[in-house]
Amino acid sequence: MIISWNLRGLNNVGKLKEISSRLLKLRPTIAILIETRVKNKNAKKIRDKLKLPHNYLDNYKWHDNGRLWIEWDNSKIDVRHVKCSSQYVHVGVYNLQGEFKFWLTAVYALNQLDRRKVLWKDLEAIHKHQQGPWCVIGDFNNVTKAQDRIGGKAVTESEYIDLLNMMETTGLAEMDTTGEFYTWTNKQVIGTIYSRIDRVLGNLDWFQDNLDTVLTVLPTSVSDHALLCVSRKDPIIKNNKNFRFSNCLIEMEGYNDMVKASWSRPTRGSPMVRLWNKLKRLQQDMRRFSKPLSNLKQNLIKAREDLQFAQENLRNNNMNGDRIDRVRQLTEEVINLNELEEKMLMQRAKVDWIRKGDGNNSFFHAIIKSRNNRRNIYMLQKTDGTLLENQSEIEDEIMDFYKKLMGTEDSQLHHIDIDAMRNGKQVNMEQRRYLVSNITEQDIERALKGIGDDKSPGIDGFGAKFFKASWCIVKEDVIAAILEFFNTGRLYRGFNNTVVTLIPKGDNARYVKDYRPIAGCTTVYKIIAKIITERLGKILPSIISHSQAAFVPGQNIHNHILLAYELLNGYGRKGGTPRVMMQLDLHKAYDMVNWRAMECILKEIGLPMQFVSWIMTGVSTVSYRFNVNGTYSDIMQAKRGIRQGDPMSPMLFVIIMEYMHRTLVKMQQNPDFNHHSKCEKIGLTNLTFADDVLLFCRGDSKSVSMMMETIRKFSDSTGLKVNPAKCQMFFGGMDGCSKENLRRITDFAEGKLPVRYLGVPLSCKRLTIQQYMPLIDKIVDRVKHWTSKLLSYAGRIQLVKSITSAIAMYWMQCFPLPQFVLRKINAICRSFVWTGKQEISKKSLVAWDTMCRNKSQGGVGIINLQVWNIVSLMKCLWNICRNSENLWVMWVHTYYLKGNDAITAFVRPNSSWILKNIMKQRDKLGQIQQHWDQALSRQKFPMSAMYHGLTEEHQRVSWRSVMCGNKARPRAVICLWLACHKKLSTKDRLRRFGMIQSSDCSICNCADESINHLFFNCSGTREIWGNILDWLGRRHDPREWDMELAWIIENTKGKGWKSALLKMATAETVYNVWHYRNSMCFGTVVDKQVIERNIIDNIVYRSWQYPTLRSHVAKLMM
Q: What is the pLDDT of residue 365?
């Protein structure tokens, strides 16, 4: 255990005693004590009173006040001084046998920005002269992003850019934390500031050596800084009784026979009981069948060794049929084991954006470890401040919390307002008949197909992939069990026993309430719930008001954001109509829903009794078992609440919130109620997205009182409680006295704009660059995580395409992003792709504009964010033009256009900045007029067609046939792409840039190393490529790259198996030859036969995943 704590002085007797007590309880192996304020002459006396082992290093030589002490337990480790300054102490850590373990740098940065720059330079210098695992820990006096400080001055990029640059240069990344998020507070009532300035950084070697290590941020106690505790937690002993089906089992030989044999044994009982018993029995058979997976790594190593031995034997007698057959069998075994390993890791890692695989097993391992460390609960804090670290204590605290929350019914609730419910839209007779119509086999199969293969299973351990893969065997029993539920309304309790996993809501999860309970329902229950949800979803738009945007087909989250911006426009100006916006926080919304109230609401909205009975059976028979660090708790019977993870829950919650809306509609009939400015004509009082609620009214006491009374009655009848401490009010056109009067009515605090709403900042005026920083920080956080350093070029490109662009696109749906922000995001993504770092670099092998082209034009299909932003705003304009059925469009037509045509309407000077930018897109319609007219006539906005219409046309590259549809590993395809662009860093290019003196080929030493020479004019690489072509059955003499590429292009234009294999062979050969060249450059001798074998193995492995290629590859292996 390593701890770091800024003590802010050790000279006070009482404080010293408390600090000593805390440190002795923790018993760290290494303790870094910062800002002791102890003079050198008093150091020994104070250290004696601390009662820690007397092994200390410090930096008194550089500063009088004992800025840094390092203390260690010499019965466990040895610490050796290397160097220090007034801001750091750098040491080497060794075991008792004298073997090096890691470098450790204790840091206490100075307050002045320019003096901290000296520390960053010192750390860069340390990095240059050492190798191996390195940990930097302490008080950096520096934030790393905008969210690292609340209160005080707004964070600016200039504050942290130097620190980030140092981290990039040194390869250091921040360690994930549990516990507190902010590590320092000024402890002031007025002008409170929290910031995150204490941290732990590590290089890739450190993280890979410490995958089981956790950083816990403990409370400040008697200091103003939190205590950082880096500890290797005892391995959490998983309960082996918890069965979980591995999707890769379906690839194993004998799988179907095993399932069929187990399933065919007879059982007694109703269809549901029979299905449950068969699944439980199959668990035991699956455990026995999956035993080879427990030793998968060892089996793979042995299979590779056996294959190598068999191939060597075959070379001695290459016409021996038995030896040929043996090589074929072992090759297939190696391929299957590789495939099993990767599929198992991908299922556990759940990294959706890299599904196609790239041999990134180290990345998958790291992601799994990182996620487990984040989800495992090593420490909880009770409300009285007590810290819990024991597994049983943590489990008891979780059970106690949820028994009070979901295991207890609130019996004091009032009845719902039936008049309010009946005055709204009702389900009609045709819809009622549809809802309870017969359930068909097609309904069940469609529901099963709609469940993702990698979704977590329920208590029985069988995910959707098992049922899909074994459908021909289990189909009859599953259908009979599900039809039994819909015919009788009874649900076997085992299928509704739910495993709950607690996921931290943020980086500072300390209490149980800081974790989100995600329910893992059984697949059989999910099928039932999805059938109900599908039917409910079809009638929902006809009964739900436009004020709700969550989970209602046709409604969109961004429309609420746009409308909120319009209503806040002018809030920052003096004068005008007094108006109020209130942001509500519903405490544990899903968990607090009262079942009787929900049943009554469902009936009063017109749902048939039988359909309501199906829903209530699914909701009210649920029981929970909490997954606490891999161990299941005792069963807890629920008394209220709906599950996060149940397919029905989102729509049920929407219907409950519809009741709130209808009570607000009834309230508007009171003549004393006054609407918010520009809301009365469309009857707007609220914008609701699930449990995110905004309320709007005139800024007078009567209107606010009536609205609060309506919300109180809603709470008293449904169990959904408003948490005043987390609610905020925003005022427009009101003086201080009037604001205070309304605050007393609501007990809400006055909020400050911008405020976070649905993931974006909500403001009354144009966002500043500073307010876009959360978007940039979110992208930086994703690319700077240490696990991203394990990705290849291909993996990094996929990460940019799938995640970072998606983050920006969410904002683009409603905001015009400034050019500065777009350039910044592009620069971050470009630098990450080419360097693996977040530090903005000019290094770029291929221009970013080229990368944003599609594959046929020589790009890799990364989205051009500038163009996509325009297309997103055009979609907003299109919604206005077609008068889409949502509140924002209704508001624009009612208060802005007033009957005028959207294309020709005059843009008013007082329009909001967002609306001005949307209307500005009218100038660009000429470029895509045909697509625009089609979109209006077809009532569908084709984002992709619009994007391509606005994107500059480029000539298609001649080598497009080699790239498109290439089934080689993504990293090999990217290497081939670089070769086609002639952008590989060959020695002739490096010499042209003045980076090296000699450009002799490292393989043959006979010519300058250029693309044309290396592929395949070099005698060494020509032999490799020639042998691969021979193996493919291609009679062809390799030539230099330009000529060879022309031949490859000519022979890959078709769609047959020969063309597919040649594409793969080209990519894999270019990649492996380049890898071979790099090894030779750095003095590593590699056998060419090994290179050829790797190429063939990869071709075979990738081909084996495609049935159309498998038989042809099998013949090549003979």
A: 41
Checking phi first, is residue 841 left (phi over 0); if not, alpha (psi -120 to 50) or beta?
beta
DSSP output for 184-201: EE---SSS--EE--EEEE
Identity at 886, one-letter amino acid code: N
Tokens 């995110």 belong to residue: 692
Helices (H) and strands (E) in the chain, counts: 43, 31
Q: Which amino acid is it at 420?
A: A
Dihedral sign from CA coordinates of 122, 125, 129, 132 = positive
Q: What are phi and psi of 626, to 5 degrees?
A: -90, 130
**Three-class DSSP category at 502:** strand
Residue-wise pLDDT for 392-404, tens only, equals: 999 999 999 999 9
* Residues 1020 and 1088 sit within 8 Å (Cβ to Cβ): yes
Closest by CA position to 548, among listed 446, 424, 643: 424
CA proximity to 414, closest of 613, 605, 649, 594: 594
Q: What is the pLDDT of residues 1019-1057, one digit of tens each?
A: 999 999 999 999 999 989 999 999 999 999 999 988 889
Strands (E), 655-802: 686-689, 692-698, 721-722, 728-732, 749-750, 755-757, 760-762
139 with 198: CB under 8 angstroms? yes
DSSP 136-156: EEEE----SSGGGEESSSPP-
- Using an 8 Å Cβ cutoff, are 696 and 573 in contact? no
DSSP letter at 548 equals: B
Helix (H) or strand (E) holding 286: helix 271-289
Taking the C-alpha atoms of residue 1051 and residue 282, their distance in angstroms, rounded to an integer, is 50
Interacting residues of 952 by C-beta distance below 8 A, sequence separation 6+: none
Tokens 């709906």: give the residue: 642
Q: Kindly report the number of other CB atoms within 10 A of residue 31's CB atom.
A: 24
How far apart are alpha carbons 311 and 1093 in whole angstroms?
10
Contacts of 225 by beta carbon, 8 Å cutoff, 6+ apart: 5, 6, 7, 8, 34, 139, 183, 184, 198
Whether the Cβ atoms of residue 4 and residue 71 lie closer than 8 Å to each other: no
**1059: amino acid identity, one letter:** S
Give residue 527's pLDDT: 97
The dihedral built from the CA positions of residue 1090, 1095, 1097 and 1098, taken in this order, carries a sign that is: positive
| C-alpha–C-alpha distance, residues 492 and 275, integer Å | 10
Distance of CA 878 to the CA centre of its chain: 31
